[in-house]
Structure formats: structure tokens, C-alpha cells
Design goal:
Layout: E1 6-8, E2 11-13, E3 19-24, E4 31-37, H1 40-56, H2 64-80, H3 82-93, H4 97-117, E5 124-126, E6 133-141, E7 144-148, H5 154-167, E8 171-175, H6 182-194, E9 201-204, H7 208-217, E10 223-227, H8 230-240, E11 246-250, E12 256-259, H9 265-277, E13 289-293, H10 294-309, H11 329-344, E14 348-351, E15 370-373, H12 380-383, E16 390-396, H13 399-406, E17 411-412, E18 414-418, H14 422-431, E19 436-439, E20 454-455, E21 458-459, H15 464-469, E22 472-480
Parallel strand pairs: 7-8, 7-10, 8-9, 10-11, 12-13, 12-18, 13-16, 15-16, 18-19
Antiparallel strand pairs: 1-2, 3-4, 5-6, 6-22, 11-21, 14-15, 17-20
Helix pairs in contact: 1-7, 2-4, 2-6, 3-4, 4-5, 7-8, 9-10
The structure holds nicotinamide-adenine-dinucleotide (NAD).
Length: 495
């Protein structure tokens, strides 16, 4: 077993209860590594260390510039080994190497962004009616922050959580996803080498139901930031109620990508594929519903099916691979269940729908890029997040119907519109009940811009200045510049 699994209180340690977990390569289901698998008792140990670090340690009291210097170093270290981190991510998560390389660069830049941001003006002063009072607002870290992340962007999600949390002066406990801990372990090796103070950044591995739940319910934790499924988010919110933690939830989606007849169809078609098949569709903001104006359906759909069928599916480590395997056999099974439900409910497969098993693919969790047509809005494949390479096509006649269908799920994470009519595009985006929207593009994500959802896609925002806000408390300070007896009580000042 790896000796480096849990990073608690400034050092690597084994799980108290001695659990282990095999980590598999989704392209082959071969064992990549064996890591420690923690329990609630490990979470409790980490919380004690984080409390010590926050309540009495240097980190929250340090100058922002000093914290920033360490975060800049971390960004540089990530960049310096970008190629090996990307390869590790691909082997563990499955996504093609070019996507993993993008994640690594984004992760480094996320640390850089927040290292820069935290040294910029944060507080406020303002005039109040009493001329003897100087009133101001200062921003302070929230405290001990639990950060629970999913398996689809293992390194990038760690960066999205740790960068703003640490920059703001919090002590962070990251809980990696069970299946994909390897890049997070490497990140914490870098954190150790750079020399962050003990207990400031800690890493837990282990099941969500025990380790994650212990973090979410602990009264020693002041904030929980969670990215994952909506059902889990609900559980975390309930568990957080005991001490009324601050909670940020980045949850699932069923995002619409709307193609109007006046779009540049060749561009729109390529983006429609990218929207759903990037990251094997295991992307919260995936354009998993393609809304197509009926007048162009006959032209567009055969071309779409043809292009989807030609996507090169394979081991993400092989140059030229355009889509990798699903993360685990269990997840592949879950996605297949959705495909069965689509067929049972009467949708029609335009392409895909089955596992790919030719040659070496038989060992891995490969699924053909899949497209359903003849769907109805009430079908499970239209309403529920599949989190795989499965696209549901819906047809519409006009702008009003497009908006109505687009908003007709419990989710509200993202959405795209393709049209040459800029005013129409903007009009439709403004009507989407979603937090992340794109006109004539899909998926670009920026450290500078807020990330998060409407409706059951979550609460709060990550990234940008909004992401820093989510890790800061707000304190007003009122200073009497001219203290005089108050004269409020008769005996006041008479002794
Ligand atoms: P998941 O909800 O099963 O697990 C996410 C994390 O939560 C894991 O670390 C898991 O161990 C932990 N967890 C599970 N049960 C828990 C509990 N009871 N208490 C505390 N922690 C618990 O999600 P997943 O399958 O790993 O990831 C896929 C989901 O993540 C999808 O729904 C996807 O949409 C969502 N996601 C959202 C965003 C976003 O920014 N909105 C980004 C990426 C992924």
C-alpha cells in the first residue's frame, strides 16, 4: 500500500482503522495503486488538527502576501510537472490526455488567480450618521472548511476548493473522491514540500457516507463546500444543520444546448458534440440535451449521428483518442441503465447505445457516443442527469418553445445557444434559469467568472471574486473617535 494516503496535521499517515482501496485504470480496469481508505475517525483527527491550526496557528494571522507567496509556489510546482500530473489524471480518471493537460494548467492558474486576488483591497469604509464614529468592514476567514469533491475533475476540483479557501486564511480539509485520489495525493506532496504550516491543508480519502458525512456533521467544521450529485448535496445540507455551517453546493445538471435554424450549422454541430462528449459526458455542465429547431432537424441529425460515430474512443493515454472510458464499471452500469430506460420509455437510438468491446476496449469501461431522438420531456433520459456520453435531442418550433423546454427540469446549471442573431441569442440566454451560459460556444470556463447553478444545481458560486467571498466572513468595526460620557443612565459617570 502507498504510505502516502492521508495527509493530516502536516504529515502522511495511515488510516486509523487500516482500510485500503484499490485504484483502477478505467481504460483497463488494471490496478494502478492501492491507497489508504479512511474512516470517520480519520476525519475527526483532521478536524482536531485544523481547529488547532485555525484557532492558534499562524495561517489566518499571516499577511495575505505571505499566504499568496506559498500559493504562487504551488502553482509553479504544478506547472513544472504538468505533463506527469496530466498523465496521472488520465490513467486514474480516464479522460483523454489533452483534456487532462487542460485541467492541470487550469488548476495551476486557479492557485495563481486567488494568490493575486487575496492581496487586493477587500474591506470597506463608509460614512455613518454619527460623525464621531469611524465605521469600516473587514473580511476574515470563516475557519475550518471541509471540501468534498467528485471524481470527474479530481485535480481541478481540488484547486477550485483549496485555492480560494487557503488564500482567504482558512484551514482546509479536502476529501477526495473514492475512485480518483491520485492527483490529489501528488498535490499534497507538493503542499508538504513547499511547507504550508501544519493543519492548514489536509487530505482525507475514504467513503463519502462515513468520512464525508463526519465532516459535514461535525461541529468543529465551520463551512462545507461540496461538489457532487444533487442527492448527496441534500444529505450534506441536512448534516450541516447541526451547527448551521456555511454551505456551498455545486451539484448536477441537465443543461440545454439550443440550436436555432439560423446558426452556422457546421460550427454548431461540432460544439454540440463537444458539449456532451468532452470528459465522456461526465461533466456537470455537459450539454446533455440538444434542443434543435424542427426546420433543420432532418439536415442536422444525420450529420450529427455520423460525426458522433466517428469520435475516436479509446485509452486516453493513446495520442489521437478523443473520448475515454467511463470512470468505473459501476458507473458504466448506471449509464447503461439510463440507456435501457430511454428505450423502454419509447425514445429512439440515433447512434451508439452500447459498450465498445473491440480488442483492448473490452477490458475498459467504454461506451459508444450515444444520441437519443424522438424523446418526450417527461422521459428519464430528458429529466435526469446521466453523467455519461448520452445526448437527448428535443425538437422545438420557436423561441418561446425553446425556452420553455430548456427550463423544464429541476436543474439550472448551464446552457448554450447557437444562432447568428445576436439579439435573439442574448434574449434566450437571459430567459434561461441557469448560472452559466454561452452564446455560440460551449464549455469555456474561466477562473475569473462565477461558477454555480440555479434551482437544484446548487447554492452559492465558486471562482472569481464570488468564490473568494464564499470563504470570507464579514465584520463591521465601529470606532468612537471622540469618546465622551454617554449620559444614558442617571448614575453614568458620577462615581
Ligand atoms: P457524489 O455526490 O456521489 O460524490 C461526490 C463526493 O461526495 C465524493 O467525494 C463522495 O465521497 C462524497 N460523498 C458521498 N456521499 C456523501 C455523504 N453522505 N456525505 C458527505 N460526502 C459524501 O458525486 P460523484 O458521483 O462523485 O460526482 C458526480 C456528480 O458531481 C454529478 O452529479 C455532477 O453533476 C456533480 N458535479 C458538479 C459540479 C458542479 O460544479 N456543479 C462539478 C463536477 C461534478
Amino acid at each position: 500500500m502507498r504510505t502516502k494516503s492521508l495527509f493530516i496535521g502536516g504529515g502522511w499517515c495511515e488510516p486509523v482503522e487500516g482500510g485500503t482501496r484499490e485504484i483502477l485504470n478505467p481504460a483497463t480496469n488494471g490496478i494502478l495503486d492501492e491507497v489508504g481508505d479512511g474512516s470517520a475517525r480519520d476525519a475527526e483527527r483532521a478536524i482536531v488538527e485544523a481547529r488547532k491550526a485555525f484557532d492558534a496557528g499562524p495561517w489566518p494571522r499571516m499577511r495575505a502576501q505571505e499566504r499568496a507567496a506559498l500559493l504562487f509556489k504551488l502553482a509553479d510546482r504544478i506547472d513544472a510537472e504538468a505533463a506527469s500530473l496530466a498523465a496521472l489524471e488520465t490513467r486514474n480518471n480516464g479522460k483523454p490526455l489533452r483534456e487532462a493537460a487542460g485541467d492541470v494548467a487550469d488548476a495551476a492558474n486557479c492557485f495563481r488567480y486567488y494568490a493575486g486576488l487575496i492581496t487586493k483591497p477587500l474591506g470597506q469604509t463608509y460614512e455613518v450618521p454619527d460623525p464621531s464614529i469611524l465605521s469600516m468592514v473587514v473580511r476574515e476567514p470563516i475557519g475550518v472548511c471541509a471540501q468534498i469533491i467528485p471524481w470527474n475533475y479530481p485535480l481541478l476540483m481540488a484547486a477550485w476548493k483549496l485555492a480560494p479557501g487557503l488564500a482567504a486564511g482558512n484551514c482546509c480539509i479536502l476529501k477526495a473522491a473514492e475512485a480518483t485520489p491520485l492527483t490529489a495525493i501528488r498535490l499534497f506532496e507538493l503542499i508538504e514540500e513547499i511547507g504550508f504550516p501544519s493543519g492548514v491543508a489536509q487530505l482525507l480519502l475514504g467513503p463519502g457516507a462515513t468520512v464525508g458525512q463526519a465532516l459535514a456533521s461535525s461541529h468543529g467544521v465551520d463551512k462545507v463546500a461540496f461538489t457532487g450529485g444533487t442527492a448527496t448535496g441534500r444529505r450534506i445540507l441536512a448534516a450541516s444543520a447541526g451547527n448551521l455551517k456555511k454551505v456551498t453546493l455545486e451539484l448536477g445538471g441537465k443543461s440545454p444546448n439550443i440550436l436555432f435554424e439560423d446558426a452556422d450549422l457546421s460550427i454548431a454541430l461540432e460544439y454540440a458534440l463537444f458539449a456532451i462528449y468532452a470528459g465522456q459526458g461526465e461533466v456537470c455542465s455537459a450539454g446533455s440535451r440538444l434542443l434543435v429547431q424542427r426546420s433543420i432537424a432532418d439536415r442536422l441529425l444525420p450529420a450529427l449521428a455520423d460525426a458522433a460515430g466517428r469520435i475516436v474512443v479509446g485509452d486516453g493515454m493513446i495520442p489521437g483518442t478523443e473520448m475515454g472510458p467511463l470512470v468505473t464499471p459501476a458507473h458504466l452500469e448506471r449509464v447503461m441503465t439510463f440507456i435501457d430506460s430511454g428505450l423502454t420509455e419509447g425514445a429512439e437510438l440515433l447512434t451508439g447505445g452500447s459498450r465498445l468491446t473491440a480488442g483492448d476496449l473490452a477490458r475498459g469501461n467504454f461506451l459508444a457516443p450515444t444520441i437519443f431522438v424522438n424523446t418526450r420531456p417527461d422521459m428519464r433520459i430528458v429529466q435526469e442527469e446521466i453523467f455519461g456520453p448520452v445526448l437527448a435531442v428535443q425538437l422545438f418550433d420557436d423561441e418561446a418553445e425553446a425556452v420553455r423546454l430548456a427550463n423544464n427540469t429541476v436543474y439550472g446549471l448551464a446552457g448554450g445557444v447557437f444562432t447568428r442573431d445576436g439579439a435573439k441569442g442574448l434574449r434566450v440566454l437571459r430567459q434561461l434559469r441557469a448560472g452559466i451560459t454561452w452564446l455560440n460556444t460551449y464549455h469555456p470556463t474561466f477562473n475569473e467568472a462565477p461558477w454555480g447553478g440555479y434551482k437544484q444545481s446548487g447554492t452559492g458560486r465558486e471562482l472569481g471574486t464570488w468564490g473568494l467571498e464564499a470563504y470570507l466572513e464579514t465584520k463591521q468595526i465601529n470606532v468612537n473617535l471622540n469618546p465622551q460620557p454617554l449620559g444614558w443612565y442617571r448614575q453614568g459617570g458620577s462615581n
